[in-house]
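STRUCTURE:
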């Protein structure tokens, strides 16, 4: 395959990138069919204009003036380092990435305000419309919007974006990106990596929704962010039929009394209620948006066997799923398409898991919607940043923690707050994970307490396999490779093994690089891998009977030089006997869940 199935204009001295691997979805990609699904499922409007497609780009030394000439074309929303962007260049911490394109406003939007929305830009973005700076945002993992109404003009409008991303030369959250990828550290991602779009909005409008179910009282709390004030009206629908309504002032959450026979959400029965939320002022409906929710309660309780078990809607449930990195050989951070993105979730479900640990990354919001609607529990990591302190496996009580600078700590807290705000309403998310294995881990107890106070409706896994535990959060999480084992327990917490496995199997023709591939252990056939996988399931089942209430297997797919996935990096091969793995997974979950 060439770099992609479309041709982009680039300077003569450069070649289009040829990815070591391609996916079937990337091979079908064209500038006309790139990510055209409405990107914000928790707050929907009918009218919008997609700005994905070909933009101009330039890479210039940091501090340069706005470019008048460009290096070529880039396909948005793929990061500039990716093959699917059509560029495949590294930016680095000494340079900035510039974007440029034009757009027109549909004539039937006249009289309305216009929002410019970005799903995700790594890392700092400055945005201009017709030379007017409309805003700035720092943070790769949360969406942001600007009201650009006052900057617009009739006819053609010019959009310019400048991006700076120091990757591992900075202290900002960056996940597994490094300037020199190797081992478990991957290729940098710079610039726009999620959908960019325009939408017409009223002047007084709903800007955000925070939806929290309360199963105990059969109530739904709906808090609306608005630009002005008024009355918020909430309508709850079950398959198109209105089953509950409520109204309240914008200054407080609206309490909706759900039906007496309220339907609960679970992996086996992921029931979704649709929502219609309106903003009313002086008797006039000024804005209406669509959304959805699910009724479910998360916790952990001490069972008759004296073991603390995760619960869902008051019943014990064993959380079991893969470590999901969310990387792609042709798109890096960005899946080649919506169909590609949900393929990983479908395969996870088919293999018998009921959970995914989203590892050191945040996905496009459509990923979480698919988990919501298809019954997948999600543990959501905060992407790591700053310095990775030496991971001291089995040492959970060191007296001195890593200290970030005030600026680094502030940026971490700012981005974690935005991520939690943006994802709060998704019912599939059941656990927040602020830190992993000492990667930028700091002030653990206070961060865990803040996370819990911000969202008491979910569990907090303060330090998954981390250097410091300090009794923080709801969960004690240990890592051990390759086999699961117990070496530390907390009688007052839910105990889990947050990572184990890593069974490697390199398949020729499906490798990111011809050599230097690794797993924690390696085998040469699907049977060998499956046999060892089931051996670990049997060990885990015994551990679950005496302590563990959840586990995470490494990992969903191969990623760059790692070949320890259940699937190859290009998603073209399932590397295990799928039926045997599914049967073993279901046996483990069912044996250690509700009785």
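SEQUENCE:
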């Amino acid at each position: 395959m060439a770099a992609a199935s479309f041709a982009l204009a680039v300077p003569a001295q450069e070649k289009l990138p040829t990815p070591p691997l391609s996916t079937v979805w990337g091979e079908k990609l064209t500038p006309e069919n790139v990510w055209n699904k409405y990107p914000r499922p928790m707050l929907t409007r009918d009218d919008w204009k997609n700005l994905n497609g070909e933009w101009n780009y330039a890479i210039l030394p940091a501090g340069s003036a706005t470019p008048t000439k460009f290096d070529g074309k880039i396909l948005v929303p793929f990061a500039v380092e990716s093959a699917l962007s059509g560029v495949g260049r590294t930016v680095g911490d000494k340079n900035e990435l510039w974007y440029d394109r034009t757009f027109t406003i549909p004539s039937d939007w006249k009289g309305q305000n216009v929002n410019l929305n970005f799903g995700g830009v790594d890392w700092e973005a400055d945005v201009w419309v017709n030379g007017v700076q409309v805003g700035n945002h720092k943070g790769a993992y949360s969406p942001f919007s600007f009201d650009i109404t006052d900057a617009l003009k009739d006819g053609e409008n010019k959009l310019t974006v400048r991006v700076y991303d120091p990757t591992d030369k900075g202290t900002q959250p960056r996940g597994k990106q490094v300037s020199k990828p190797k081992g478990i550290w991957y290729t940098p991602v710079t610039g726009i990596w999620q959908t960019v779009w325009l939408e017409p909005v009223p002047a007084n409008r709903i800007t955000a929704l925070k939806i929290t179910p309360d199963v105990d009282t059969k109530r739904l709390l709906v808090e609306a962010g608005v630009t002005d004030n008024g009355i918020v009206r909430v309508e709850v629908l079950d398959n198109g039929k209105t089953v509950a309504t409520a109204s309240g002032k914008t200054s407080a959450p609206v309490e909706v009394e759900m039906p007496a026979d309220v339907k609960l959400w679970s992996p086996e029965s992921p029931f979704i209620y649709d929502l219609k939320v309106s903003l009313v002022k002086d008797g006039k409906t000024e804005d209406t948006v669509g959304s959805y929710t699910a009724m479910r309660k998360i916790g952990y309780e001490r069972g008759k066997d004296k073991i603390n078990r995760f619960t869902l809607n008051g019943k014990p449930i064993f959380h079991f799923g893969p470590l999901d990195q969310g990387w792609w050989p042709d798109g890096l951070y960005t899946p080649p398409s919506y169909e590609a993105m949900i393929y990983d979730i479908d395969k996870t479900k088919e293999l018998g898991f009921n959970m995914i640990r989203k590892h050191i990354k945040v996905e496009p919001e459509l990923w979480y919607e698919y988990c919501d609607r298809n019954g997948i529990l999600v543990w959501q990591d905060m992407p790591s940043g700053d310095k990775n302190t030496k991971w001291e496996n089995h040492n959970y009580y060191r007296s001195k923690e890593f200290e970030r600078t005030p600026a680094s700590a502030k940026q971490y807290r700012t981005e974690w707050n935005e991520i939690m705000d943006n994802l709060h309403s998704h019912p599939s998310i059941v656990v927040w994970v602020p830190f992993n294995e000492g990667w930028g881990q700091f002030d653990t107890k206070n961060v865990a307490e803040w996370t819990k106070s911000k969202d008491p409706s979910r569990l907090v896994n303060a330090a998954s396999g981390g250097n410091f535990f300090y009794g923080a959060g709801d969960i004690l999480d240990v890592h051990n490779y390759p086999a699961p084992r117990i070496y530390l327990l907390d009688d007052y917490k839910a105990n889990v093994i947050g990572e184990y496995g890593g069974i490697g199997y390199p398949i020729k023709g499906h490798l990111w690089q011809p050599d230097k591939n690794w797993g924690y252990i390696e085998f040469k056939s699907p049977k060998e891998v499956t046999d060892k996988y089931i051996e670990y399931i049997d060990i885990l089942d015994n551990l679950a009977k005496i302590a563990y209430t959840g586990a995470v297997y490494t990992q969903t797919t191969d990623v760059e030089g790692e070949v320890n996935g259940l699937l190859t990096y290009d998603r073209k091969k399932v590397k295990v006997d799928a039926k045997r793995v599914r049967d073993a997974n279901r046996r483990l979950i069912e044996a250690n869940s509700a009785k």
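REMARK: The longest helix spans residues 526-546.
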